[in-house]
Amino acid sequence: MSGAKKVKDDIAQRAAVLMHGAAEVISLPELEQRLKLGRPLRIKLGLDPTAPDLHLGHSLVLKKLRDFQRDGHTVIFLVGDFTAMIGDPTGRSETRKPLTREEISTNAETYRSQAFKILDPDRTEVRFNSEWMDEMGVRRLIQLAARQSVARMLERDDFEKRLEAEEPLFLHELLYPLIQAYDSVALGADVELGGTDQKFNLLVGRDLQRSMSHEPQIVMTMPLLEGLDGVRKMSKSLGNYVGITESADEMFGKLMSVSDTLMLRYYELLTDTPTAEIEKIRKHEIHPMEAKKRLAETIITEYHGAAAARAARHHFESRFQRGEIPRDAQVFRIASALWICELMKQLKFAPSTSEARRLLGQGAVRVDGKTITDVNFRFVPGEHEVIEVGKRRVARIKP
Predict the structure, then answer these.
(1) Tag placement on the chain: N or C end, fewer CB within 10 Å?
(2) Domain boundaries of the chain, sorted by first residue
(3) Cα–chain-centroid distance for residue 173?
(4) Is residue 397 helix, strand or coil?
(5) Non-local CB neighbours of 228 within 8 Å, separated by 6+ positions
(6) Neighbours of 89 (CB within 10 A)
(7) How remote is the C-alpha of 115 from its chain's centroid?
(8) Rounded CA gap, 300 and 298, in Å?
(9) In terms of Cα–Cα distance, which of 78, 143, 89 is closest to 112?
(10) CB 214 within 8 A of CB 181
(11) Would you call the peptide bond into 113 cis, given omega within 30 degrees of 0 as the criterion?
(12) Which of 367, 381, 387, 389 is nearest to 334 (CA)?
C-alpha cells in the first residue's frame, strides 16, 4: 500500500468514527479535507443554561465531543449566557421566557462541572458568549444583521408555523440564530454540533462564516433523545428527564419506568452495547425486565461507577420487586394516634390536605403493606409501623 493510500484510508477511518451515531453531517468531504490539515480542529457545542442540570439527552452531543477529543481535537464548551437572556425559540410555539443574570450564572456554573463528567477538562475550552456579545455595540449588531435576510430567517419551520397560526413572533427571536452563528465566527469553529432541531441555526453559522471570509464550519447533528414518556424530547421543563447528577437509585427507578420500545432506543443511543445483543433484546431472547436492569446498570456505571450501579439494582429489586422496606427508610416519631392526612403532610409526602386526600383516593397510600383509602384513617404508633406513599416515599413510624 502506498503512503498516500494509507493516509487516505486513515483519514476515512477517523472520519467514520467521528460520524458514528450522527444523524447528519454537512459534509463528509469537508470533514475529511479538514482532517487532512494535520492540526487539532476546533469543535464547538453551545448550550444555553436554561436549567441547572444536564440530562441524558445532552449526553449524546457531549459524548460526540469526547470522540473528537480522543481524536486529538480541541473542544469548545460554549455556555450561552448571553443568548439565554434572549431565549432559544427552537421548537417553541410561543416566546421563551428569558432568564435573569443570576439564574444564568447559577446554571452556568453547574453546567461546567457536570460537563466534565464526560469531557476531558484538559482538552476543553469553556467559553461564555457574553465575552464578545457584551462588547458588541448597536452599530456592529446592525452591521451583523445586514448579512442575513428576513426571508432566510423565516425559513425556520417553527417561525413559519407561528406566523400561520397568527402567533406573535418578536424581533429579538429573529436575532437568536444570527448571534449563535456569530459565536462560530468569534471562536473560529471548524465543526459545530447540535441536536437535529438545531440544524437551521448551525447552517446560519456556515452562511455567516462564509460571508465574513471564514472557512464555513462543518455541521454535525445528533439524534434527539425521547424523554421517559417516549413522545417528547427529553427536557427538564417537561419532567421527562434523567439527570446525569441524580442519585443512582433515582436514575435506576426512572430508567425502569420506560417502555420496551424506548428501552431499545436508549440502548442504541446511550450505550455501546453490541448490535447482536440489542437484537436478542428486540426478539425477547432476553426478558424485558432483565434487559431494563442491564440498561440502567450500564448507564449508571458511566456516571456513578459500577459499585453504585450494583447497589441501585439491589435496592430496586428488594424495594419494588420483593416489597422490602429499605433499611435507611426515614424514621419519624409521633406520641399518639394521628390522622393519616396530617401524618402525610408532616412527613412531606403530601404538600396539602387536598393532595393527601387525592393520593388516598388513588390507592397510593399503604400502611404496613395494606392499601388505605379511608380518609378518616388514624395511624396509631406501636399498632402500625410503616407508611408508604407511591413507589419511593416510605417511613417507619415510632412512638
Answers:
(1) N
(2) 3-222, 248-321, 330-398
(3) 23
(4) strand
(5) 234, 240, 241, 242, 254, 257, 258, 262
(6) 22
(7) 11
(8) 6
(9) 78
(10) no
(11) no
(12) 381
188 is written with which cell numbers?
A: 473560529
Q: Which CATH architecture has domain 330-398?
A: Roll (3.10)
Torsion angle, alpha carbons of 193, 194, 196, 202, to 10:
-70
Q: Which CATH superfamily is domain 248-321 in?
A: Tyrosyl-Transfer RNA Synthetase (1.10.240.10)
Per CATH, the architecture of 3-222 is what?
Answer: 3-Layer(aba) Sandwich (3.40)
Range scoring the smallest mean pLDDT among 21-25, 37-41, 112-116, 310-314: 112-116
Answer yes or no: are the C-beta atoms of 162 and 154 closer than 8 Å. Answer: no
Are 341 and 355 contacting, i.e. CB atoms less than 8 angstroms apart?
no
| CA 309/CA 302 separation, integer angstroms | 9
SS3 278: helix
Is omega for the bond preceding 27 within 30 degrees of 0, making it cis? yes
Tell me the sheet residues that pair with 226: 233
Nearest Cα to 396, choosing from 311, 334, 312, 313? Answer: 334
Q: Which residue is listed with cell 379511608?
A: 374
pLDDT in tens, 274-313: 999 999 999 999 999 999 999 999 999 999 999 999 999 9
- The pTM score is 0.75
Please list, in sequence order, all residues whose beta carbon lies within 8 angstroms of the beta carbon of residue 74, skipping any fewer than 6 positions away.
40, 41, 42, 43, 123, 124, 125
